[in-house]
Write a structure and sequence with these properties.
The chain is an alpha+beta fold and 816 residues long. The chain contains 28 helices and 27 strands. The strands form 5 sheets. Strands 21, 22, 23, 24, 25, 26 and 27 form a 7-stranded mixed beta sheet that branches. It has a 5-stranded antiparallel beta sheet with strand order 2-1-5-4-3, with helices on both faces. It has a 5-stranded antiparallel beta sheet with strand order 7-6-10-9-8, with helices on both faces.
Length: 816
């Protein structure tokens, strides 16, 4: 049966309309209209108000929808993860800003390119299989890839892929895990010792929850790290026979935050019992804040088994005890009331490096044992385990002392001693169970070294590492470099949980809401903003953070780090300023080139016109060689200026190269330098075949050939007949023009690195300016070529210019 008391949406709207009608329209009951008409008018007015209310609601819904769409676009573009939309062939159809930054290319250049070309060779098989799985399955697929980032180091990425509703495209979410990979590598290096030791090692957080255990721990307990990570050891290792006093002692030691050692009985996953000697060390940062607990555990089950056997032997027969003591389970010896060793087994023989006979010949406090504590300090006789047992009549356990073997090796021993055969209330002998824990102590020292190294790294880092509890929202940790960044002490920062927000520049306060929003949506953030340090200095910082969850997926911590990027921002501003200046200078140079090109072309045209008039009025001048050469030089000048104008208009790029007849360019240049070559008595010989073609820029080619010809003439040798020879051949896909002279030559050993520098001269010629070779080299390289040089002082110089070769239609090379 329906609930009639529950108002529907239409009833609610109707009621609201009637209320509005009462407040906005006068009562019409006093009019001459009949009741039916009044009711009809009333219904019409109510219906009109209902429509107006519905229209207002639709307008608000439309605004909300538009705002949601705008917000989605903003989140997509500025998300801290890369988003790629791929076709079935792996072609990039769309990419957000962060994705393009990860690849190192602009978004417009990424679209319509295969995503696979940005994947490293080693990751390509993984990516192909991953893409295939995405389009075959409706479920989410994940993988890890290495991406090749242009101009930067490779990026390690965690990639999630899911098929769109149409089934024609998929969306990839790409998260940069490069820093995580580096951190994992560092942790692996630091945990190497723990991994290879036979002792049990575990690391817990400040709440006693397991973060790491080594292989030895997994082997003995039969639990893998994945099964127990985030759990407290006592919740699954202790059992019915675990002594409550031992448990209480463990808890007390942990609460006191001091190193301690305790024995305890634990149970493996299969229910097997084993005894441990557990040493727990709290780890603090430089300010005394607790970071972790490190536990090193020794399996003392054999010793405990022996102790149990010894006690049972005391209750039965001495013979049974003697048989147990002869076993090699652990080093065992017996000492009488006078301190004389009366029994030792083979295990002790191996431990101390002496035969049983020699051991029995000594007393327990013989100076030759050189007994010290683990730090090397001598131990007084009344502090020896033997003296303590004889004095109290009670067993002593887990006493660490060091001895020196005859071969000079030192051994650190874990000693348990118990009284035997009481006479007149005093023990007549003491039995010892001894274990060699030298390697265990060395492992502990190594772990302490790792601890020290971790603390040193944190102290030396310029970045600020921080951690915030998501349980009580208290700062758990901030590295010492916080003082350099904010100008306040580590303790002050930890005390004030909101200091990081207070210090944000007023113009950047909105970043707080952005951080919270990103944490809610993706569980991490990365933001650049300004802060105001204690000394009022404004700094730029990059803040990164990520939510850390427990094994059940519950957020427990927010970890991150702050980087001072102030200098980087200053450099960016400087670069932008330099770019603007360079752009303005280039525009001025371009305008200058246009003006010079235009004006010189005008004068060149005038000269050619005058020569035409002179030739028309004096036809006999055509027979004069000098006049003909002057006329040809004028035409060459006009052509050069025309080419220069084209270069200015189009820019000197390799894409604008055209086919050029090399032999014609050389002949034109030879004509232009004819008079100075003749005056200098230098012969010029062009051996380049007439049909030789290259790819180049005409204006640059004229300049390059003229520069080398004038240099060959300018730096001729005075003591012999001079020449300049030009020849060409193909080499490795280039056409190589060789310009050989027998002039002064250049000392390449002395000047080779400076040969093509600006304003570098190597001879005392009055016309030398040191600019020609610099310009020529830049022009050749602009056309996609290069220059090589061979020279010997007093012999001559050969320049080899490599040009892009014009390939004939039949594919044959030129100038063979």
């Amino acid at each position: 049966m329906k609930d009639t008391g529950k108002k529907t949406e239409s009833e609610f709207l109707r009621k609201k309309a009637e209320e509005l009608l009462k407040t906005s329209h006068p009562d019409m009951e006093g009019t001459n209209l009949d009741a039916k008409t009044l009711k009809l008018i009333h219904e019409l007015e109510v219906h009109q108000i209902e429509l107006e209310l519905q229209n207002d609601e639709l307008i608000r819904a439309k605004i909300d929808a538009q705002n949601a769409a705008d917000k989605y676009i903003e989140l997509y573009d500025f998300a801290p993860s890369g988003y790629f939309t791929l076709s079935q062939e792996g072609i990039i159809l769309e990419v957000n800003l962060f994705g393009s930054q990860m690849i190192g290319k602009e978004r417009s250049r990424l679209r319509k390119t295969p995503f696979g070309i940005y994947v490293s060779e080693s990751s390509k098989p993984i990516f192909r299989q991953f893409l295939s799985n995405v389009f075959k399955s409706e479920a989410k697929e994940v993988c890890e890839l290495t991406l090749s980032s242009f101009g930067k180091a490779p990026v390690f990425a965690y990639v999630t892929g899911i098929l769109t509703e149409s089934g024609e495209e998929c969306i990839l979410t790409v998260v940069d895990i490069t820093e995580q990979k580096k951190l994992e590598s560092s942790i692996q290096d630091l945990s190497l010792i723990a991994t290879h030791t036979d002792n049990l090692v575990l690391i817990t957080d400040v709440y006693g929850q397991i973060e790491y255990v080594n292989k030895a721990f997994e082997k003995l307990t039969e639990f893998s790290l994945e099964e127990i990570k985030g759990r407290k050891p006592g919740s699954f290792l202790q059992g019915p026979e675990t002594d409550p006093e031992h448990i209480a002692a463990m808890r007390k030691g942990i609460q006191e935050l001091k190193p301690f050692t305790q024995e305890i009985l634990n149970y493996s996953k299969s229910g097997k019992k084993y005894w441990l000697s557990v040493t727990i060390d709290p780890i603090f940062d430089s300010q005394g804040a607790l970071l972790k607990f490190i536990g090193v555990e020794w399996d003392i089950t054999p010793q405990k088994s022996l102790e149990k056997s010894l006690k049972e032997a005391l209750e039965s027969e001495r013979y049974f005890l003697s048989q147990i003591m002869k076993t090699n389970i652990s080093a065992v010896l017996e000492v009488n009331a006078n301190g004389r060793i009366t029994f030792a087994n083979k295990a002790l023989e191996n431990l101390v490096g002496l035969s049983v006979d020699k051991v029995i010949s000594r007393t327990i406090n013989d100076p030759r044992w050189k007994i010290t504590d683990p730090q090397g300090k001598p131990v007084l006789d009344d502090q020896l385990p033997f003296s303590l047992v004889m004095k109290t009549g009670k067993p002593v356990n887990n006493i660490c002392q060091s001895i020196e073997r005859p071969d000079g090796q030192k051994r650190i021993l874990l000693i348990n001693a118990a009284p035997l055969n009481f006479e007149d209330g005093k023990p007549s002998s003491v039995v010892f169970s001894i274990s060699d824990i030298t390697k265990e102590i060395e492992t502990r020292h190594a772990l302490e070294g790792i601890k020290s190294k971790l603390e040193s790294i944190l102290n030396e880092m310029t970045d600020v590492v921080w951690s915030l509890s998501l349980i009580d929202y208290q700062m758990l940790f901030a590295s010492p470099s916080i003082e350099k960044l904010y100008g306040i002490s580590q303790a002050e920062f930890l005390k004030d949980n909101s200091y990081w927000k207070k210090s944000i520049h007023p113009d950047d306060k909105s970043v707080v809401d952005e951080i919270y929003q990103e944490l809610d949506t993706v569980g991490s953030f990365e933001k650049e903003y300004r802060i105001i340090a204690k000394n009022k200095e404004i700094k730029w910082v990059l803040n990164r953070g990520k939510v850390i969850a427990d094994t059940e997926g519950k957020p427990i911590r927010l970890d991150g780090y702050l980087t001072d990027i102030t200098e980087k921002k200053k450099k960016e501003e400087e670069i932008n300023s330099y770019l603007q200046i360079t752009k303005e200078q280039n525009e001025r140079l371009k305008n200058f080139a246009h003006i010079v090109s235009h004006n010189l072309r005008t004068h060149s045209a005038n000269i050619i016109g005058l020569l035409d008039v002179l030739k028309f009025q004096h036809p006999e001048f055509s027979e004069n060689q000098l006049f003909s050469m002057l006329f040809l030089a004028s035409e060459n000048l006009g052509e050069t200026l025309h080419n220069l104008a084209q270069v200015v208009g189009m820019g000197s790029s390799k894409e604008n190269l055209i086919t050029i007849n090399l032999s014609r360019v050389i002949e034109s240049a030879v004509t232009n330098v004819y008079s100075i070559a003749k005056e200098a008595n230098v012969a010029i010989e062009n051996q380049v075949k007439p049909d030789t073609e290259i790819m180049g820029l005409p204006a640059y080619m004229d300049s390059v050939i003229l520069n080398f010809l004038t240099n060959g003439i300018k730096y001729k040798a005075e003591n012999r007949k001079s020449y300049v020879k030009l020849s060409a051949k193909t080499q490795n896909g280039y056409l190589v023009l060789s310009i050989e002279d027998n002039g002064l030559g250049i000392n390449l050993e002395k000047y080779g690195s400076k040969l093509f520098g600006m304003y570098k001269t190597f001879h005392n010629h009055p016309d030398a300016r040191g600019i020609g070779l610099f310009i020529t080299k830049n022009q050749v390289e602009t056309m996609g070529g290069k220059i090589e040089v061979e020279s010997q002082v007093g012999v001559g110089t050969t320049f080899k210019i490599f040009f892009k070769q014009k390939v004939k239609s039949n594919g044959e090379n030129q100038q063979n």
